[in-house]
Specification:
Helices cover 91% and strands 0% of the residues. With 57 residues, it is an all-alpha fold. The protein is elongated. The protein starts with a helix and ends with a helix.
């Protein structure tokens, strides 16, 4: 996995987790949903990179 893509995936996942926790803390369902969405984007990016790595080996 390319280092920059891996870092970006981790950043999206962390940002999403922060949003989700903040949304729950203040009772904001929209912010919680955005956090989950950001985490899913990070997960998808990470999965894509793992597939690319598997195909190039």
């Amino acid at each position: 996995m390319a280092a920059d893509e891996k870092a970006q995936a981790n950043t999206e996942q962390a940002k999403g987790k922060i949003k989700e926790v903040a949304g729950r803390a203040v009772g904001n369902e929209r912010l919680t949903a955005e956090g989950r969405s950001d985490q899913a984007k990070g997960d998808a990016r990470q999965a894509k990179e793992k597939v690319k790595d598997a195909l190039t080996d």
